[in-house]
Amino acid sequence: MTEPPTLPPEPPKDSTLVSQFDQIQPLVSAEFDVEEALIEHGVPTFYVRLKLESKQAFTRLVRSLANIGFTPVLREKNGRNVLKVAPKPKTKPSRPIINVMLLLLTIVTVFITGYVLSLDLGNPWIGAASFTLALLGILGVHEMGHKFAANHHKMEATMPYFIPGPPPLPGFLLGIGTFGAVIVQKETAPNRDALFDVGASGPIAGFIVTVLVSAIGLAMSRVEPMTEPLSGGLPISPLFMLLMNIIVKTPGPGSYVVYLHPVAFAGWIGMFITLLNLLPTGMLDGGHTLRSILSNDSVRTVFTLISILILLFTGQLLMLAFVLFLSMYRHPGPLDDVSKLSLSRKLIAASLVVIFALCLFIF
User: Could you tell me the residue range of the domain that residue 63 belongs to?
Assistant: First the structure.
C-alpha cells in the first residue's frame, strides 16, 4: 500500500487583491448577470451575460468603478463576454498656462501670415486681423466640438492646444502660421457611441464654420479679367468651387481670375483641415469614427491604404509621414467593444463621407 503524493501547499492569495475583488464584484453584479467570477493572472475577471440596456449598464459601471480607482474593459472572446477590471490609469493635471501661451504665440504667427497675405489690400492690418479671427475660429470650433462631446460623455479632456507654425516668410513659403490644434483625451471612450461622438463632433462643427467663413471670404474676394494664361494656383474642392460659382460674380463674359481674400483663404485651409482630419486611419478623427463602426483590423488597414493614396494624390508628404507613423499603433478602441454603434450615428457617418467628398481637392 502506498500513500498518495503530498501536494504542494496552495500559495497564499494577495490579501489586497482579494479585498479589491470583494469591492468590485458587487458593482459588476449590480449591472450584469455574472456567469463566472475569478481572478485571472492577477486581474479581476467576469464572464457576463448582456442585458437589453447593457450599453447604459456598462457606462454606469465605469462611473461606479472610477470612484474606487478602477476601470472596466468589455470584450468578446470565444463567443463569451469577458469583463476585466484594471486600476484606473493616473493622469497628470492640466496646466492651462501652456494652453494660453500656445494660443498667444499662434495668434502672433497667424497674424503675421494674414499681414503678408493682405499686403495688396487697402489695410493689411485689417486683413491680418480678419484672417486670424477666421482661421483660429475654424480651428477653435473644431477642437471645442471634441471637447464638448468628451464632456457630454464625462470623459476628461484638456482644452485645445494651438500649435504655432511658420508664416510665409523666406524659407517657409508654404507656412500658414499654424500646424492646427489638438485636445488631449485623458480617458478612453466608454463605448462606440462615445468614441464616434468625440471623433465626429470636431469635423462637423469645424465644417459648418468653414462653409460660413468661405462664403464671407469669397464675397470679399477680388475679381479681375484674365489677361494672360496663369500658371499654378490653388487646387480647390467641389464645395469651394460651388461656393465660388454662387457667390463670386463676374462683370461680364470672358475669363476672370479670383484673387482670394485672406478670409476666403482661411476657408480654403478649413476645408483642407477637414479633409485631413476625416482620413479614415489611425488616431485621426476619421480613424476614431471608423473604429467605432468597424473593429476588424484587416478592413481598417484597407482604409489606411486608401488614405495613403489620397495623400500621395494631393502631394501631402508631411501628412503622409504622420499617417504612416500613426499606422504603427493599433487603435485601442472603446472600453466596451461589445455594444454596437447606434443607428442614428451610422446615418451621421454617411454624412461624414459626403463632407469628405465635398472637401476633396480634385480641381
Answer: 16-87
Question: For the stretch 86-101, what's the b/e string if a residue is b when 16 or more beta carbons lie within 10 angstroms of its beta carbon?
Answer: eebeeeeeeeeeebee
Number of domains in the chain: 2
Tell me which amino acid residue 97 is.
Answer: I
State the pTM of this model. Answer: 0.88
Task: Tell me: do 151 and 290 sit in the same domain.
Answer: yes
Model confidence pLDDT, tens digit, residues 59-114: 999 999 999 999 999 999 988 999 999 999 888 888 999 999 999 999 999 999 99
Residue with cell 482644452: 159
The amino acid present at 25, given as its one-letter code, is Q
279/138 same-domain check: yes
